Amino acid sequence: MSYYLGRGTNSSTSSSYREYFVRYAYALLPIALFYHLAHNLEHLLMEGPKVISLMSDPFGWGWNLFGTLAWRVPPLVSLDILWILQVLLVLVGHVYSLWVANRTTQNMFANRRAAIRSQLPILAGMIAFSIFSLWLLKQPMEMRTSAM
């Protein structure tokens, strides 16, 4: 849809649909990358401190190499702070995606009106992708192993 909106009668783009799709696909990568970072931030901040006690018994054989096996280190941040950090990461990815989409549009279209028309579906998709990312991060996580 974005391709056809941008190709209007006054457009000076000669890009094929494939080239157009590939160029705009790069605009979604920052949202995906920063979502991935936000998701893994939970593992790092909530489960990361467990590494201290696990270092004493790396194979689960009952060792206590460093005397830290009984240590119970709490998570580094609360769930509220974690959520704020995750939202910030997704927002940074979203803003970066907006910048990439704008640069892509500037490079593809000489006609400003066609550029704006072509960006509307992409922007709607980015907003939906960011909202879905935030919704997914807010879902409760169930661990697959009892050791975590």
Main sheet makeup: none
| Tally of strands | 0
Helix content: 55-70%
The whole-number mean of residue pLDDT values reads 83
Question: SSE order in H/E notation?
Answer: HHHHHH
Determine the number of helices (DSSP H or I, runs of at least 4 residues). 6
Shape: elongated
Question: What would you note in describing this structure?
Answer:
It is a single chain. With 148 residues, the protein is mainly alpha-helical. The chain has a domain at 17-45 and 78-138. Helix content is 64%, strand content 0%. The protein has six helices and no strands. The radius of gyration is 22 Å and the shape is elongated. The model is unreliable at 8-13 (pLDDT under 50).
What is this entry, summarized?
Helix content is 64%, strand content 0%. By secondary structure, the protein is an all-alpha fold. It has a domain at 17-45 and 78-138.
Provide tags for this entry:
single chain; 148 residues; mainly alpha; 64% helix; elongated
Strand and helix map with partners:
Elements: H1 2-6, H2 17-25, H3 29-47, H4 50-54, H5 79-108, H6 112-138
Helix pairs in contact: 3-5, 3-6, 5-6
